[in-house]
Design brief:
mainly alpha, 9 helices, about 0% strand
Length: about 190
């Protein structure tokens, strides 16, 4: 007959072994954190599952999006072209050097906009994603500005390269993201 307290002792011993094993693994340096090596299958699965559930839970609290109008689409395009293309690319525009070096690789936002509702897109754009290279634009942008980006994202599915190129030309951008007449890296949003 088992003595009282033994199951609790077994659980405590198991937890202690798990904690010690995890600490030994972390301090051994065996896991390669370089962006060029990518994640292991298990690491990729854990991060994706954690990310998916975390965003889904938090996006439920996002209020309904405002209606899109031509001004918000224009603002969204300008911000997207200035801040997002480098990592995510655009129709007919490859990811920049930064985007090609991030692991995990930034997603194609035309696919993301097709697969996810606007509240999720808003939450990710506003809050960013840890361990994914996705910055949070909430600290530097108003909710209205973030919604403008989301409104433009919703236009990406099905957009052809020629249509995106017309947006670029119409709004006075050079190929590198800066506006014509701006010094490189100083693209102005207030025009």
């Amino acid at each position: 007959m088992p003595r009282p307290g033994r199951p609790g002792l077994a659980v405590a011993a198991t937890l202690l072994v798990l904690v010690a094993g995890t600490a030994a693994f972390i301090y051994s340096g065996a896991y390669d954190v370089s962006a060029t090596s990518g994640h292991t299958g298990l690491g990729r699965w854990v991060l994706k599952a954690l990310q998916k559930r975390s965003i889904a839970v938090r996006a439920d609290g996002v209020p309904e999006p405002p209606a899109a109008d031509s001004a918000s689409l224009t603002e969204g395009f300008e911000r997207y072209h200035e801040m997002c293309v480098q990592c995510h690319g655009a129709p007919g525009v490859e990811r920049g050097e930064i985007g090609r070096g991030i692991a995990p690789q930034p997603p194609d936002l035309a696919e993301e906009a097709e697969e996810h509702d606007p509240k999720r897109l808003f939450w990710v754009t506003k809050h960013g994603v840890k361990l994914a290279g996705m910055p949070a634009f909430g600290p530097t942008h108003t909710d209205e500005e973030v919604w403008a980006i989301v409104r433009f994202l919703e236009r990406l599915p099905g957009m052809r390269a020629s249509e995106y190129a017309r947006w670029v030309e119409r709004h006075g951008f050079a190929a590198g993201g800066e506006r014509h007449g701006d010094a490189p890296g100083t693209a102005s949003r207030d025009r």
